[in-house]
Write a structure and sequence with these properties.
- There is one protein chain.
- The chain has helices at residues 21-36, 57-67, 83-93, 104-110, 169-172, 187-197, 213-222, 259-273, 283-306; strands at residues 8-11, 40-45, 77-78, 97-100, 140-143, 154-159, 163-168, 176-179, 202-206, 229-233.
- By secondary structure, it is of the alpha/beta class.
- It has a domain at 8-80 and 196-206 and 232-293: Rossmann fold (3-Layer(aba) Sandwich).
- It has a three-stranded parallel beta sheet. Strands 4-5-8 form a three-stranded antiparallel beta sheet. A two-stranded antiparallel sheet has the order 6-7.
- The protein is globular, with a radius of gyration of 20 Å.
- L-glutamate binds at residues 10-14, 46, 187, 205.
Length: 307
């Protein structure tokens, strides 16, 4: 946990549909960690990607959290109402940001001439790094990452669950998008700006976002923002081994059944996926026993990561 005086955590779902079991696991982990440390738990609706938003999904998400007994602190925020903050951050990044005319297909085609690690990924090859070719029209805005012997090229952090992790931004990521071709703000920039503006000290989320963390550390450095503590919990997979998500057919865990039914159909299964073996007869009792149990689970995970 962060050494700052007040713990501030958050859960930041995208309103692309109702919460499923995988998203409940992430919400539960962040909520338990905040309550374990006597901190504040914020909810932020990450609706900056307007094309994927589903009407009414944000309210369904908030209602489901409340029905599960999770109470947030302060007001809920929506990214779509904070675009002025992202524009200010973009201006602060200055000359490190440049226009890019490349489509995803062009970037994929460029990998055909590469070998090794770069050939196996969608790492941007730097085509527009030194200016647009004649006749090319800017699509997205990208942020230069350090290469060569530049400082901050390799960034690492100690994850409270996973241990020490690091990434070479030049070889493993490449210059990344901060404003997309469709005009929407990119996740990496928006999440860093929001966490900084809201004073978030501790980020607890799914391990599918580990790969994004070094990019966020880089942005935090450039924007002179404090670095939060991180804890990435294992993601929930379906029977095919795919991450449980709306794209892989994950179903909503809250179908409007009586609240107490959520205890057995959602809360206890989500807790088991986090390593919590609990017995409870009500939602209220569930949270009373889950908070101290979470502390023991995190301690074991941390000890294992240090081995």
């Amino acid at each position: 946990m962060s050494e700052q005086a007040q713990y501030i955590g958050r859960f930041a779902p995208s309103p692309t549909g109702p919460l499923h079991l995988g998203s409940l696991v992430a919400a539960m982990a962040s909520y338990l960690d905040a309550r374990l440390h006597g901190g504040r738990w914020l909810v932020r609706i990450e609706d900056v990607d307007g094309d994927r938003n589903v009407a009414g999904a944000d309210q369904h998400i908030l209602a489901s959290l409340q029905r599960c007994g999770m109470r947030w602190d302060g007001e809920v925020t929506w990214q779509s109402r904070r675009t002025a903050l992202y524009q200010a951050a973009l201006e602060q990044l200055g000359a490190l940001v440049y226009p890019c005319a490349c489509s995803r297909k062009e970037i994929a085609d460029s990998q055909l001439s590469l070998t090794g690690k770069q050939a196996q990924s969608q790492i941007y090859p730097g085509t527009c790094r030194h200016g647009l070719a004649p006749g090319r029209v800017a699509r997205a805005l990208r942020l230069r990452v350090p290469c060569g012997a530049e400082p901050l090229r390799v960034l690492g952090f100690t994850d409270r669950w996973q241990g020490w992790l690091s990434q070479d931004l030049c070889d493993e990521v490449g210059d990344f998008v901060v404003k997309r071709a469709d005009g929407f703000w990119a996740y990496q920039l928006a999440v860093v700006v929001d966490d900084g503006a809201q004073g978030v000290t501790d980020i607890v989320r799914g391990a599918d976002l580990i790969d994004s963390t070094p990019r966020q550390l880089y942005l935090q450095h450039l924007l002179d923002l404090p670095q939060p503590s991180y804890l990435h919990v294992p993601v929930v997979s379906n029977e095919a081994g795919e991450k449980l998500s709306k794209q892989t057919g994950a179903q909503a865990f809250d179908n409007g059944a009586p609240v107490e039914q959520l205890l057995n159909s959602a809360l206890l299964p989500a807790a088991r996926l986090l390593g919590l073996e609990l017995a409870a007869n009500s939602v209220e009792q569930f949270w009373r026993v889950a908070v101290p149990a979470w502390g023991r689970v995190v301690e074991r995970a941390s000890q294992k990561a240090q081995q």
